[in-house]
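Show me any protein, keeping tokens residue-aligned.
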Amino acid sequence: MRDFPSGRRKPVSTRRQEILIVDYALVIATASIASGLTMFSGFGLGTVLLPVFALFLPVELAVAATALVHGANNVLKTVLLGRGADRSIVLRFGLPAVVAAFGGASLLAALSGMPAMLTHTLFGREAVVTPLKLAMAVLMAAFAIVELHPRFAKLEFDRRMLPLGGLLSGFFGGLSGHQGALRSAFLAKAGLTPPAFVGTNAVIGLLVDLVRIATYGAVLLGGSLGALAHSREGSLVLTGALAAFAGVIVGTRLLHKVTMPAVQRLTGVMLLVIAVLLGLGLV
């Protein structure tokens, strides 16, 4: 890297290039590692990736970007493992999830159009608190508590509650992308073999992703979701998707038993940090 004389600042273009490199490196590392580690848990990629995207994208665009990476990841997982999915559970859980995902995504679009609730200065920086940021902050804090508190570590639900689980996970999936943990908790007692669990999770996740991506494109971004392909945000999404693909391939070949406590603790801490920053209007 070029050396700059002491007392002189680096050119703005050089600083911007360094910032871009950090952005891409963070997305690649997060997407690939999270995708590989969560292959058999059925959740974690979107939960970990959303706070990363939220660091340098508006929160509603961060949700949409995460959905695109998450959807691409589920396409590959469905191709590789979808044949083992349990069709009856896909119908009982997946159909309510699809309907509820549309509702959650529509609510996200409605909140994103609301004016700021509060503008203030914090640490010498102007901070803006909007209804969307506040709602996302509350959701992230709630899911962080679920990730961090040992009482929720083995949260599971009866098979009879599959339709309710579909509604809940689909709604929160559409609103904030936090769908996988709830879905896995409900599917854990469905009597599935490990291959069927992974395949069923992937198929249902893909169905929800397709609905929320279409809804984001139509009502959140005004039909301009395709314009992302020619923007910096679009290149970040593509980078994240490719990194997630690599994580899936490595996870499929190398990981036979995944332990999640460390990943869940890291996820919980990240969610809490971003929740506080969103609540204060700093991101």
Remarks:
- The chain is about 70% helix and 5% strand.
